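Notebook p. 47: complex prediction with adenosine-5'-triphosphate.
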Amino acid sequence: MNIDSDNQKTCPQNGTPTMPAMERFFNTAGPTKPDLHYQLDPLQRLDWDEVRHLIDTQRYFVLHAPRQTGKTTTLLAMMKALNAGGRYACAYANIEGAQATRGDVGQDLPLVCKVVAQAIDDACPGAELLHWYENTGADVSALGQFADLLSYWTRHCAKPVVLLLDGVDTLVGDSLISLLRQIRSRYEQRPHAFPQSIVLCGQRDIRDYRMYHGDTAVMAGSSVFNIKAASLRLPNFTQQEIQALWQQHTEATGQVFDEAIFPAL
Ligand SMILES: Nc1ncnc2c1ncn2[C@@H]1O[C@H](COP(=O)(O)OP(=O)(O)OP(=O)(O)O)[C@@H](O)[C@H]1O
Ligand SMILES: [Mg+2]
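Predicted complex, structure tokens below:
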């Protein structure tokens, strides 16, 4: 590394300016990024072998935890690891913002489809799902669009596909029922014409996906998501994990924390 007259770090080979190394910091907003933030390995926070086994055995399952426990961080790390593994094409989509109304299928599901199509395009270059959806996929009833989208992706991808769907329980009423029903409707066609695995992530456990129509309880996803063992709970951060995080700062900066503060954190 050379330093030029403006104190700009430059590459010794070609003299082009290079970015100074970022000092990592404690993240308090949104998912953590390993290059920017102190981070616990997200895949160590859940039983990664079990998750991989569920995916390898074509299971659809729920990952749930309360707010701010690292769900999104963990799902993004899962996508990275699965894509790096080379066996699957994996996309992560957050549908938190994809609702126009509280339960109007005709408005909510097209928004979900667009978000998911864009996320697939981002994760799997060349998929061109958004283009397909806007020109063809959106022409059928909203009651079938999501299933068609996943089917189209699966059929046109060289690898079995895995979808990690975040913020699922922000959908309510008929919109959530329709999303789960569309998944269930093609479940038997996996992995050649529907995803190998789908992970539904939100704050609620699967048993809470029971909804009521009048007096009738409707388990919209029951035959697909009713296996208790496949409803995983991401644990809260432990005292040990929090201390390990502080230790990363000590190692990076030399600043030592008084042990007396840890119980208060
Ligand atoms: N692996 C990790 N290592 C260290 N801190 C983490 C990790 N994962 C999450 N956090 C902390 O938790 C916060 C929330 O992370 P994230 O957004 O992934 O959680 P979430 O459960 O998806 O939250 P929300 O319920 O708001 O969607 C981060 O801003 C960070 O402070
Ligand atoms: Mg989140």
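Notes: The domain at 42-236 is CATH 3.40.50.300 (Rossmann fold). The chain has one domain: 42-236.
Next step: compare against the earlier run before touching the bench.
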